[in-house]
Amino acid sequence: MRVFDWYYAWVEAWPWLHYVSAAVIVLIFLLLRKLFTRFSFAIIKMISRHGKSPLLENLLYAFTKPMRMLFVVVGIYFAILYLGPQPDVMYVVNRLLRTFLIIFFGWGFFNFSGTSSDLFTRLGRKIDGDKDSMLIPFTSRILRGLIIVLMFTVIAMEWDYDINGFIAGLGLGGLAFALAAQDTIANFFGGIILVTEQPFKQNDWIEVMGYEGVVEDITFRSTKVRTWAEGVVIIPNSTMANESITNWSEMRTRQVFSSIYLKYNSPVENVRNVLKRVDQELRDSPEVHPEEIEVYVREFEENGLEMLLYYFTYKTRWTEWLQIKQDFNMRILEIMEEENVEIALPGRDIYAQSDRSSLTGTKNVTNSPE
């Protein structure tokens, strides 16, 4: 008690010590915010450790930063209480505290509704079995937008703002807004169609409207496709929903179609051996679909005999597909070398024919009567 009496005596002597004490209270809460958050979450985890779902743990992580900020706000509130403000000032302070509580819960649930949340991971697996589904980011954005709208609505009600008048104003201007934003609304519903029908997922390789690349993201308005030239094409969702989309990532096998030209002077039996051995190499490979193999001499072209190669690989990724194709091309070159069959280079053979008299240098002389 003597310590407190000594402290009150000092405060009475120097009134500015009230503000120093208030600042010390804020500083204590500021320094202890991380420790308090860890301690509180440790208790909650210990209580819920028997649960099998990580949903509560993810919820705690979502509220980590808001909890630290709230702890500082509570420290400021206690510091203001210590200073003993007037009732009208305290009325505003209490409203501010309730506003920060609303922001606290809105911020936490905003973090929890992110795409990495366990909530959306489970949702994506239950609906389409794929965590890369475009449904997850699209639904996350809708939910986050609703959380923000709800948070600002509750804050406005806390400060006695007339929400009914605002809604009535929106109703009067709804027609003008719909006419002005009809393209935006069309893109929004186009995005819903793309998400529900799921013609592609994030990171899928697609081709649409002459553009080819990987799907990076889908928003309320547009879909972003990164082309092979590392450019980003932004296509409105309403356009995407009405266009034919080729999803190359859904390939079960990938086609190889090429031609090799052989010289005409190649021995026929050797050409037959080349065809037979190449066909057998393809059928023996575990990387090639065995029911879709065609190796034939298809046409007699100007450059030479056209040998057709047509098969499908199980690998569909670009680099893996190129590697398999290269291995077979090198093996075909080895077979042709072993069978003494050469590749015909582009060009033409020119045959010239001259009169025998011109070759011997003689002239034909006609004697005319005199």
Automatic annotation (TrEMBL):
Membrane topology: Multi-pass membrane protein
GO biological process, one term: transmembrane transport
UniProt keyword terms in alphabetical order: Cell membrane, Membrane, Transmembrane, Transmembrane helix
Positions of transmembrane segments: 16-36, 67-84, 96-114, 135-157
Annotated compartments: Cell membrane
Domain called Mechanosensitive ion channel transmembrane helices 2/3: residue spans: 142-182
Superkingdom: Bacteria
Matching Gene3D superfamilies: 1.10.287.1260, 2.30.30.60, 3.30.70.100
Main location: membrane
One Pfam family recorded for the sequence: MS_channel_3rd
Record-linked InterPro entries: LSM_dom_sf, MS_channel_1st, MS_channel_C, MscS_beta-dom_sf, MscS_channel_2nd, MscS_channel_C_sf, MscS_channel_TM-2
Domain Mechanosensitive ion channel MscS: 183-249
GO CC field: plasma membrane
Domain Mechanosensitive ion channel MscS C-terminal: 259-343
Family note: Belongs to the MscS (TC 1.A.23) family.
Protein name stated in the entry: Mechanosensitive ion channel family protein
Organism lineage string: Bacteria, Bacillati, Bacillota, Bacilli, Bacillales
